[in-house]
Design brief:
With 152 residues, the protein is mainly beta. It has two domains: 36 residues, no CATH class; 88 residues. It contains one helix and eight strands; from the N terminus they run ββαββββββ. The strands form three sheets. A three-stranded antiparallel sheet has the order 3-8-5. A three-stranded antiparallel sheet has the order 4-7-6, with no helix packed on it. The model has no long low-confidence stretch (mean pLDDT 80).
Length: 152
């Protein structure tokens, strides 16, 4: 396989930055950062990306609003619930998007994992409660960062 060669680098107006990586001299591989807010050497740094627009001219940040964000502790093999919104039963529809990730901790490794889902349930006769459930798949306690958007 021939090595890649950039003949003409793109101009700033033609370029899209996907990520930055600070490679150490002894690097053998690149990893997903354990803490996306503070990536280290040999970890993918996505902090400097611009938000791209769809061809129709909109972006998630314009079409949605943040309804909840923060950090939550989740016990080993446990589940944490974060309230999103409670809606009247007559108009129960809310469309949500969430981003969740385990935060960096001492002793963390790349097998550390969580799972999450958004759930709606009836509260009494006239309300619908929407929640984010985060499940810790690890056998140790962890802290999870999350952000929840509501579209529309």
């Amino acid at each position: 396989m021939l090595p890649a060669k950039i003949v003409d680098p793109p101009s700033e107006s033609d370029a899209v930055e996907i990520a930055r990586i600070h490679l150490a001299k002894d690097a053998t591989r690149v990893r997903t950062p354990t803490d996306p807010a503070s990536p280290r050497a040999n970890e993918i740094d996505r902090r400097h990306r611009r938000h791209l627009r769809e061809a129709g001219g909109w972006s998630l940040h314009e079409a949605a609003r943040i309804v909840n964000e923060g950090r939550v502790g989740v016990t080993a093999k446990g589940v944490a619930e974060i309230a999103i919104e409670e809606l009247p039963h007559a108009e129960p529809f809310g469309f949500y998007v969430a981003s969740c990730y385990p935060l960096h901790q001492e002793g963390a490794d790349e097998r550390d994992a969580i799972a999450w889902r958004m759930m709606s349930r009836r509260v009494g006769r006239h309300r619908i409660e929407n929640v984010l459930q985060i499940e810790n798949l690890m056998s140790k306690d962890t802290e999870v960062g999350f952000r929840i958007y509501k579209l529309g």
